[in-house]
Design goal:
Layout (H helix, E strand, L loop, with lengths): L2 H25 L7 H20 L4 H19 L4 H25 L6 H28 L20 E7 L4 H12 L8 E7 L4 H10 L2 E3 L7 H10 L6 E4 L5 E2 L3 H11 L3 E5 L3 E2 L4 H6 L10 H13 L10 E4 H6 L10 H11 L3 E4 L5 E3 L5 H21 L10 H13 L3 H17 L8 H23 L7 H22 L19 E2 L1 H26 L5 H24 L1 E2 L9 E2 L3 E5 L5 E9 L3 E5 L11 E8 L2 E13 L2 E6 L4 H10 L4 H5 L10 H28 L2 H4 L13
Parallel strand pairs: 1-2, 1-4, 2-3, 6-9, 7-10
Antiparallel strand pairs: 4-8, 5-10, 6-8, 11-12, 13-15, 14-15, 14-17, 15-16, 16-19, 17-18, 18-19
Enzyme class: transferase
Catalytic activity: [(1->4)-beta-D-glucosyl](n) + UDP-alpha-D-glucose = [(1->4)-beta-D-glucosyl](n+1) + UDP + H(+)
InterPro entries: Cell_synth_A (IPR003919), Glyco_trans_2-like (IPR001173), Glycosyltr_2/OpgH_subfam (IPR050321), Nucleotide-diphossugar_trans (IPR029044), PilZ_domain (IPR009875)
């Protein structure tokens, strides 16, 4: 960057800071708190907004207006404070509503049936996207950022809590870690009990629970899946509160003390949710190698959306890492069983009864992400189906008990999962013109750009400012494109007939023995990419041989190229990377000591850990043969755990140790010294590289190019590799849609 550019940026930042400070002082004036002033201000603002949205401009007037607004938005994007964010939202909403008003009043004069068919589909998709944009702004404009409330000094006054760990088909090694850390929760021992709720009715689980001294609850059926499992346990326990953890979600020692203070302060609080944090990469992060560099698909929800919901008293229960007060839960009939998203539906029922729900954006547990793309898609299909079911059987816009803000938050959550059809329309819209000559906009290309680009650019920089810590620009299109085809049918079927479908369990703790390309999963993306490549070729041909609508062709070509990037990035996700570790490693620098057979010790620091081993940095000159027995001590403050281990591998200064024959007490101690440390998760929560739209676009383009290379590499492999070796390209795992 040149010095002049640096000075300009500094001046713009200082100007933005001054504007923000003046605005904050004006809003603090008590004058604005008078009811009459509020209503008059609202009426005037509404009339001005309507005027700005509807006033007709010709091309040059629209360009001048859009340019001034965008420059103001850029200045605001450098301005600290919530007021600047609200001002950016106003500008974005103005640009989007102005575009949609122009779109509906000036571009729908279709002349042929093919124009009408493609044009109507596109405008419906745009209306859906606008509604989601507006609801998203409403939901996340002012995150509550709730802080923990300290517990009373006298532990004898603390309430009793039951810890539920439901399981069905997960391996015992996965469940063990959650049980081990739950046993070490910082809470009076006589005031909490741990229960494994085993819907698999497995003898080894019963024996394990007896060995470690936790409760084991089962039933003679699997009716209503996880919801029924928890409801059955409620009948056999009596704690004042219930804390629920999926069997792969490992709680930290501080979980209860961080969460429970709000229940004692607010007697109407029925449920408190904490984030779902994952110490293993999901299929996007694993297959694209973006773990801890690009925020994952769920980080926006737990980093921002839930915090925004909390402002409106509309926090969703997410099925795990949460505490529920037993009285209100019994009042609504236990965990909801009418839909397959029993968790969100339960929170809706609690809110309808007038109870509060809350969110603490502090990771207090960590779990395993889905290993394969097929498993990930199956999980999202269940969520989408459940939200469509709620939309039909308990629509938040209807019925008693909810305030306006709560209704809109729940509505946005449900409408979000209807993105399948709109996303597919956006991925194919330019082909209507390039392949069929359909004019989906009855307007000139320059006017389309003058109205559409402000809408797109304002939404991009505003969302980047609001979501930058938890979602990078353009990645939402990749996530939705991967899932769009697969959630389209289940959502529509569930909306038409909510009783269809079943609960599908998301497998955790599995292995992927070798890398392979999932042709079955990738098929829709490949078809979309080939269609867009065909449209690109035809469009270039039109330009090469002369075309009276050259600008229109260029606009559609740019759109097509963008769609090719997104679909090729989606193809890259379908190239499954092998996963050969039963126990994923967690990167962490923990104080440790090595003790050798001759009694000497060496102070070291861990690089990572798992339930089966630990990686340690040692001096390069230290000689340790493979297989040599050592003892490794791991510390937390003054607490020390000593564990027998053997040297598994050595690479320069990196030493890999494998724990040997740990007894149950040592396994419990190891889990509580490693996985139960909240600082492990707090260090990386919300600390991804900050978003910059251009850098994010460049990253998605790189992934898209990578997708092209992977596709042709696998095609070559299948075509020219001998049949015996070609079998290494594994078939897709069966996609469980819950139908």
């Amino acid at each position: 960057m040149q010095p002049d550019d640096t000075n300009t940026n500094i001046q713009a930042s200082r100007l933005g800071t001054r504007i923000g400070a003046i605005g904050e002082r004006l809003l603090a004036e008590p004058f604005w708190q008078h009811p009459a002033v509020k209503w008059v201000s609202l009426a005037v603002a509404a009339m001005l907004f309507a005027l700005v949205v509807t006033v007709p401009f010709d091309l040059y007037q629209q360009l001048i207006f859009a340019t001034v607004c965008f420059i103001l938005a850029l200045i605001l994007s450098r301005t600290p404070g919530r007021l600047a964010v609200l001002a950016m939202i106003v500008l974005s909403v103005t640009a989007s509503c102005r575009y949609m008003y122009w779109r509906l009043t000036s571009t729908l004069g279709f002349e042929t049936w093919i124009d009408t068919f493609f044009g109507t589909g596109l405008v419906i998709a745009e209306l859906y996207a606008l509604v989601i944009l507006l609801l998203g702004y409403f939901q996340t404009a002012w995150p509550l950022q709730r802080k923990p409330v300290p517990m009373p000094a006298d532990p004898s006054t603390w309430p009793t809590i039951d810890i539920f760990i439901p399981t069905y088909n997960e391996p015992l090694d996965v469940v063990k870690q959650t049980v081990f850390t739950a046993l070490g929760l910082d809470w009076p021992l006589d005031k909490f009990k741990v229960y494994v709720l085993d819907d698999g009715r497995r003898a080894e689980f019963r024996e394990f629970c007896q060995e470690v001294g936790v409760g084991y609850i089962t039933r003679d059926n699997n009716r209503h899946a996880k919801a029924g499992n928890i409801n059955a346990a409620l009948k056999n326990t009596d704690g004042e509160y219930v804390a629920i953890f999926d069997c792969d979600h490992i709680p930290t020692r501080s979980f209860l003390q961080i969460c429970m203070g709000w229940f004692l302060r607010d007697p109407k609080l029925a449920m408190l949710q904490t984030p779902h944090f994952f110490f293993s990469p999901d299929p996007f992060e694993k297959n694209l190698d973006t773990f801890r560099t690009v925020p994952n698909e769920g980080e926006l929800f737990y980093g921002l959306v839930q915090d925004g919901n909390d402002l409106w008293n509309a926090t969703f229960f997410c099925g795990s890492c949460a505490v529920i007060r037993r009285g209100p839960l019994d009042e609504v009939g236990g965990i909801a069983v009418e839909t397959v998203t029993e968790d969100a539906h339960t929170a809706l029922k609690l809110n309808r009864r007038g109870y509060n729900t809350a969110y603490l954006a502090i990771p207090q547990a960590a779990g395993l992400a889905t290993e394969s793309l097929s498993g990930h898609i199956g999980q999202r299909i269940r969520w989408a189906r459940g939200m469509a079911q709620i939309c039909r059987v308990d629509n938040p816009l209807l019925g008693p008990g909810l305030k306006f803000g709560q209704r809109l938050c729940y509505l946005n959550a449900m409408l979000h999962f209807f993105y399948g059809a709109p996303r597919l329309i956006f991925l194919t819209a330019p082909l209507a013109y390039l392949l069929f000559g359909a004019h989906v906009f009855q307007s000139t290309a320059l006017l389309i750009a003058a109205f559409a680009m402000p809408h797109i650019l304002h939404a991009s920089i505003t969302n980047s400012r609001m979501q930058g810590r938890y979602r990078h620009s353009f990645w939402n299109e990749v996530y939705e494109s991967v899932l769009a085809w697969y959630i389209l049918r289940p959502v529509l079927v569930a909306f038409i007939n909510p009783r269809l479908g079943k609960f599908n369990v998301t497998s955790k703790g599995g292995l992927i023995g070798q890398s392979y390309f999932d042709w079955t999963i990738a098929r829709p993306y490949i078809v979309l990419m080939l269609l867009n490549l065909g449209g690109l070729a035809l469009g270039i041909g039109r330009l090469a041989f002369g075309n009276a609508e050259a600008i229109t062709v260029l606009i559609n070509l740019f759109w097509t190229v963008y769609n090719i990037v997104i679909t090729s990035a989606s193809i890259a996700v379908a190239s499954e990377t092998k996963q050969i570790r039963h126990a994923p490693r967690v990167t962490a620098a923990l104080r440790a000591t090595l003790r050798f057979a001759d009694g000497k010790t060496l102070a070291v620091e861990t690089q990572d850990f798992s339930q089966t081993g630990v990686g340690i940095k040692v001096p390069a000159e230290l000689e340790l043969p493979i297989g040599e027995a050592v003892q490794v001590s791991i510390f937390r403050n003054e607490e020390e755990g000593v564990f027998p281990a053997t040297v598994a591998f050595r690479h320069g200064e990196r030493l890999g140790l494998r724990f040997e024959a740990l007894n149950t007490q040592q396994q419990i101690e190891l889990a509580q010294l490693t996985f139960a440390r909240a600082d492990n998760w707090a260090k990386v929560w919300g600390h991804s590289t900050p978003d910059t739209p251009l850098a994010a676009l460049r990253g998605v383009i790189v992934i898209g190019v990578h997708g092209f290379r992977l596709l042709f590499s696998h095609l070559y492999h299948m075509t020219f590799t001998p049949r015996s070796k070609a079998r290494r390209v594994a078939p897709s795992a069966k996609l469980d849609t819950g139908d």
